[in-house]
Automatic annotation (TrEMBL), chain A:
Family to which this protein belongs: Belongs to the binding-protein-dependent transport system permease family.
Designated name of the protein: Phosphate-import permease protein PhnE
GO molecular function: ABC-type phosphonate transporter activity
Keyword field: Cell membrane, Membrane, Transmembrane, Transmembrane helix, Transport
Pfam families hit by this protein: BPD_transp_1
Compartments reported by the entry: Cell membrane
Transmembrane spans: 41-59, 79-96, 129-148, 191-213, 243-266, 301-322, 329-350, 356-373
Region forming the signal peptide: none
UniProtKB/TrEMBL annotation, chain B:
Protein name stated in the entry: Methionine import ATP-binding protein MetN
Pfam family membership, one: ABC_tran
Gene Ontology CC: membrane
Single GO MF descriptor: ABC-type phosphonate transporter activity
Chain ranges of the ABC transporter domain: 4-248
Protein's gene: metN
Entries under InterPro entries matching the protein: AAA+_ATPase, ABC_transporter-like_ATP-bd, ABC_transporter-like_CS, ABC_transpr_PhnC, MetN_ABC_transporter-like, P-loop_NTPase
Length: 382, 254
């Protein structure tokens, strides 16, 4: 069978009857399918690994019971994990031979070139053996969730438990007004930590956001690489929680508001770059085309065609970010990042719940007021 | 000779769609060339390949002896100054004033920093006002572009192109989102740019009545290939069916 014969008969090759175009297109489909098969095996592997491993752990918990918290929990060890992975890999390779395996269904139906070629079994995929297996894995997740989180309704509603809850709620609702001036001063510190972090983050994120927008950076390989680097590094920075950043910076610059501010700054830059870039990606491409067509350069194009479309959404995001930062600044205080959170942690350690109650009241009032104000401002500029 | 020569132009998009298939034609200086064909026949792609808003897959576009398809980025920018463009959806910067929108036509002549600061020379501002006067919108110069009607926005887009002062004007369905009366006013402005300023025009059009009224020559695309080339009055019933399909019936715009 000659290759060119089979390929020119493909209907997907487009309206052209010129063989060169048809062959290159078929070759691209072939190449896409090769990559997709590898990704499909990977997806199937993850699924099988999870299913078999989860089943194993569920059985262990069910027959041995959970390890008591004061004992070092047992692990199946690295050799156990290797065997588990090997078994899962063999099963996944076998499963992926079928065009209906979940990995192949996902990769084929989401790939732009292979979508048309994805199998559509009669009566729906969920009715096939493969679909039922996936449903079984979902059911396993529910069973595992119950086991892993050690759901225990008895202790939730026991009389001792309820009495403890009553003590703490009682104290919280009788706030110790004597410390109100101190709490307010610390609250101002928290608000400033959030404010400075936001104000410094905005110009940095503004500049980076254009480099993190795919529609502006897909021109050539080099700009795509810059786009990838910006998106990757900010995603990484964002996936590290602010509390973790705060711990890092308390080690770096020692405890206090500066560490908290830096932690919020890093996280704000990363989050704003994502929000800003996505805004740039969703702009109307028409003005970009029009300004480019006049022979303007990149900077002029961004300034005239992109910036006017994003200024208002940027403002909205920034105010929202400040709002989030005030909330986060209180949390960051808990690990030594300064502000009212630090105070909260001290009284919590002394079990002085009346004082804790006072702090919680102030935090709640400030957060509510900011939330309201930021919503109003965003409404006004939209 | 030929002012604009398109040779074997082919565009295959990444998804495999062949938008243009080996299209060749020549346009003389001062012509008003209509481009017709069904939606998806490659008209927009053709225009965008001329100023390389869309990068052609193969073939050449030669404007006044310069191979546009072979230019590097800085030279392409310089060459784009000579090629104006008007769009179906006007593509104005909606949040900026009408005057600033017209001034953007001169960006390629401005320094980067000056243009970012928005400091255009008094001459440029005066010229922009003149361009607005030509399209009859001088009194709306300070208004935000988004506040104008569709027809007015398209006239601002034409003023922007006048400000640019191109030799070649690409018009991509300039009246497709306008009502009949406004359509004629916009087409009249294009005609004046053609006759009085000597701009060569390539104009994608849907309505054959407009093609017959305004263009000096016409080409038709069908499935990305050149299906017809000739004078507008040569498109008879037979050709019409060949270009638009057997089922098509002509509707007019008066």
């Amino acid at each position: 069978m000659k290759e060119s014969e089979t390929e020119t008969t493909k209907p997907a090759a487009g309206a052209s009857d010129r063989p060169t175009t048809a062959v290159t297109f078929a070759a691209r489909i072939e190449r896409a399918a090769r990559g997709a098969r590898v990704r499909a095996v990977l997806l199937d592997f993850l699924l099988v690994w999870y299913a078999v491993g989860g089943g194993l752990f569920w059985a262990r918990w069910t027959f041995n019971g959970p390890a008591p918290p004061w004992e070092r929990p047992e692990s199946i060890g690295s050799s156990g994990h290797l065997v588990l992975a090997a078994v899962a890999l063999v099963l996944a390779l076998l499963w992926s031979r079928s065009r209906l395996s979940p990995g192949r269904m996902i990769t084929w139906s989401t790939h732009p070139l292979l979508k048309a070629d994805a199998p559509r079994p009669e009566g729906g995929w969920w009715r096939t053996v493969h679909g039922i297996l996936v449903l079984a894995i979902l059911a396993e997740t529910v069973a595992l969730g119950w086991k892993i989180t050690e759901i225990d309704l008895v202790s939730l509603f026991s009389s001792e438990g309820l009495a403890g809850a009553g003590r703490i709620f009682g104290a919280l609702f009788r706030p110790e007004f004597g410390i109100l001036p101190l709490v307010l001063e610390k609250m101002i510190e928290t608000i400033y930590i959030a404010l400075v972090a936001t104000v410094v983050a905005v110009p940095i994120a503004f500049l980076l956001s254009f480099f993190g927008a795919k529609n502006l950076m897909s021109g050539n390989r080099r700009s795509l690489a810059v786009y990838g680097a910006v998106r990757f590094s900010t995603n990484l920075m964002r996936s590290i929680e602010p509390v973790l950043w705060a711990i890092i910076f308390t080690v770096w610059v020692s405890f206090g508001p500066f560490a908290g501010m830096l932690a919020l700054l890093v996280h704000s830059v990363a989050s704003l770059v994502k929000l800003y870039s996505e805004q740039v990606e969703s702009i109307d491409a028409g003005p970009v085309e029009a300004i480019e067509a006049t022979g303007a350069n990149r900077v002029q194009m961004v300034w005239y065609a992109v910036v006017p479309q994003i200024v208002l959404p940027y403002l909205g995001f920034t105010i929202y970010r400040w709002d989030i930062n005030v909330r986060m600044a209180t949390i960051i205080g808990l690990v030594g990042g300064g502000g009212v959170g630090e105070l909260l942690m001290q009284y919590l350690g002394l079990a002085k719940y009346g004082e804790v109650g006072m702090i919680v009241v102030v935090i709640t009032a400030v957060v509510w007021a900011l939330d309201y104000a930021s919503a109003k401002v965003r409404e006004a500029i939209a | 000779m030929g002012f604009l020569k398109v040779e074997g132009l082919t565009k295959v998009y990444d998804n495999g769609v062949v938008a243009l298939d080996n299209v060749s034609f020549t346009v003389e200086r001062g012509e008003f060339l209509g481009v017709i064909g069904l939606s998806g026949s490659g008209k927009s792609t053709l225009l965008r390949c001329v100023n390389r808003l869309v990068e052609p897959s193969s073939g050449r576009v030669i404007l006044d002896g310069i191979d546009v398809t072979a230019l590097d980025v800085p030279s392409l920018r310089a060459e784009r100054r000579r090629i104006g463009m008007v769009f179906q959806h006007f593509n104005l910067v909606k949040r900026k004033s009408v005057l600033v929108n017209v001034l953007t036509g001169s960006l390629a002549r401005q320094g980067t920093i000056a243009s970012v600061l928005g400091s255009f020379s008094a001459e440029d501002r005066a010229k922009a006002m003149q361009c607005l006067e030509i399209v009859g919108l001088a009194d709306r110069a300070r208004v935000r572009a988004s506040e104008l009607s569709g027809g007015q926005q398209q006239r601002v887009a034409i003023a922007r192109s006048l400000m640019q002062g191109p030799d070649l004007l690409l018009a991509d369905e300039p009246v497709a989102s306008l009502d009949p009366a406004t359509s004629h006013s916009v087409m009249d402005h294009l005609e004046r740019a053609n006759k009085e300023l000597g701009q060569t025009i390539l104009c994608n059009l849907h309505f054959l009545s407009l093609v017959r009224r305004y263009t000096t020559r016409v080409i038709a695309l069908k499935g990305g290939e050149l299906a017809f080339e000739g004078r507008p009055e040569e498109i008879d019933e037979d050709w019409f069916k060949r270009i638009y399909g057997e089922q098509a019936r002509e509707v007019g715009i008066e």
